[in-house]
Amino acid sequence: MTSKHFITKKEAKRIWEAMAQYGIEISGESLEVAVQKQASAYYIGGKPMVFDSGGILIPSVYLLNYRNPTRNVVAIDEGAEPHILNGSDLFAPGIVSMDGGIKKGDMVFVKSSKGYFMAVGIAEMDAAEVMTTKKGKAARTIHFPNDELMSAFS
Questions:
Q1: 5-66 falls under which CATH superfamily?
Q2: Rounded-to-integer distance, Cα 24 and Cα 33, Å
Q3: pTM higher than 0.90 for the full model?
């Protein structure tokens, strides 16, 4: 693992604002950064909370459970949970409910039947289509516990 260092408030503002768009409030939190070849991780209290992968800021599962997002939440049933934890994409039949404003291409936050967040994905369909058809791939999973990002920075 590479060394970490604190970033300036000016640098942190970009991270704070990006997370705020999902209803994840971390403004004012001190952030440390660790940089590797393909990605960076921003830490709060020693835990990786935000990943920067190819210029895309991805909240970690730690952050989602630390500061629950208020937007782009997708709730899944128990049957889908083990598949999501293994990095599978999210399919419409496993979705119980989702934020009605989700559009194709939006970042989404996958919530278990027990109420904890377990993955981050990119919507492959609008929420309205998912909830009416209940067919097809609803989201492509881009982060889950013990994935390459988490392993590289934990």
A1: Pre-PUA domain; domain 1 (3.10.450.120)
A2: 19
A3: yes
Q: CB burial class (10 A; 0-12, 13-18, 19+) of residue 60? A: buried
Q: Residue 67's closest CA among 15, 127, 106, 9?
A: 15
Instruction: Give 39-46's long-range contacts (Cβ < 8 A, gap of 24+).
Output: 39/149, 39/152, 39/153, 41/149, 41/152, 41/153, 42/7, 42/15, 43/4
- The domain limits of the chain are 5-66, 73-148
* 104 in Cβ contact with 126 (< 8 Å): yes
CATH fold, domain 73-148, is 2.30.130
Which of 123, 120, 4, 146 has its CA nearest to residue 65?
Answer: 120
Q: Decide the pairing of beta strands 95-98 and 73-76.
A: antiparallel
Taking only the tens place, the pLDDT of each residue in 26-63 is 999 999 999 998 899 999 999 999 999 999 999 999 99
